[in-house]
Amino acid sequence: GQNIDQPTEMTATEGAIVQINCTYQTSGFNGLFWYQQHAGEAPTFLSYNVLDGLEEKGRFSSFLSRSKGYSYLLLKELQMKDSASYLCAVRDEGDNAGKSTFGDGTTLTVKP
Amino acid sequence: DAGVTQSPTHLIKTRGQQVTLRCSPKSGHDTVSWYQQALGQGPQFIFQYYEEEERQRGNFPDRFSGHQFPNYSSELNVNALLLGDSALYLCASSSDTYEQYFGPGTRLTVT
Question: Nearest-CA distance from A68 to chain B in Å?
């Protein structure tokens, strides 16, 4: 099975940088996703890491260390619209590759 | 290009009733996954359909069943509804890549 942990809530200031951590213990691993979910809306894809290292995409970056079972999402130059829940999800491998297990999400509040 | 669509948007049912939720995948996608998201929690994987067959299944009882049609659209059926089935039901579609596109969801309330 999969177990995914991420902080429940975080608060940051507009214009600042915030790092949201995710740790996982899994019986299989075939990549880690980060999704953004605004209240009452569907999750939207942010990033996917399958190899160790940093993936940068505009203001958002995601890091993965498979040996440590650890990932983080880095958000730079925070904007008010970044206030949302950020979901970490691990994709199973092999015959279960279609299955993703999600954490409960980190609710980020960006303040002026 | 239409993204993933789901119907209905909201639904209220009584305990013991049955419900059917519908999903049309993004154009070009052939795989549909269903998730249940309770308030304040992350989505929980229910099952995935590919080529009209259930390919993987999460830890959900047999009351939860599904179907995929030749046009790749899908249905989620839940029988003998319980209060605990109240949640947002999300459909996600994908093809041969890792990226999933989620629909807007169906908010199910069981009273």
Answer: 22
